[in-house]
Design a protein that fits this description.
Helix content is 56%, strand content 7%. It has 135 residues and is mainly α.
Length: 135
């Protein structure tokens, strides 16, 4: 699991850095015309007068603006933090041993599902895929 967590943190760092470079948490994009995407100030982010970008692609780009990516990264990091806390709880003897073990196992599956969102990224290992996932 440690290698998967390290890899996943690297993916999240890359996504976060890219989103910050593209405008950061205040950057909201929307499709304006048939094939253009503009930022919150109305400046073009993507524009095509040759039909290179269609409305579907423009919608997809707008739905993945920097703020959305940063929100996704924050959620994924919260999942990792919950997993790490559950692992620590499971390693600490208490009257709740069985419950802590079940929570830790469930959080491991959630982290594996989180990592499975990035199966196309370099370094993903199929052995990380949770049972029953599409990864």
């Amino acid at each position: 699991m440690e290698d998967m967590i390290a890899w996943l943190n690297g993916v999240l760092d890359r996504r976060e850095d890219t989103a910050q470079d593209a405008g950061g948490p205040n950057a909201r994009w929307e499709r304006r015309d048939l094939a253009s995407v503009v930022d919150e100030a109305g400046r073009p982010v993507v524009f095509s007068d040759r039909g290179l970008t269609g409305p579907e692609q423009a919608d997809h780009i707008a739905l993945n603006d920097p703020k959305q990516i940063l929100d996704d990264v924050a959620s994924d990091r919260a999942v990792i933090a919950m997993y790490e806390a559950a692992q620590q709880d499971a390693a600490t003897p208490s009257a709740w041993d069985d419950t802590a073990q079940h929570v830790a196992a469930a959080m491991e599956r959630v982290v594996r599902l989180t990592a499975a969102k990035y199966t196309t990224w370099p370094g993903y290992q199929q052995s990380w895929a949770p049972e029953g996932s599409r990864g």
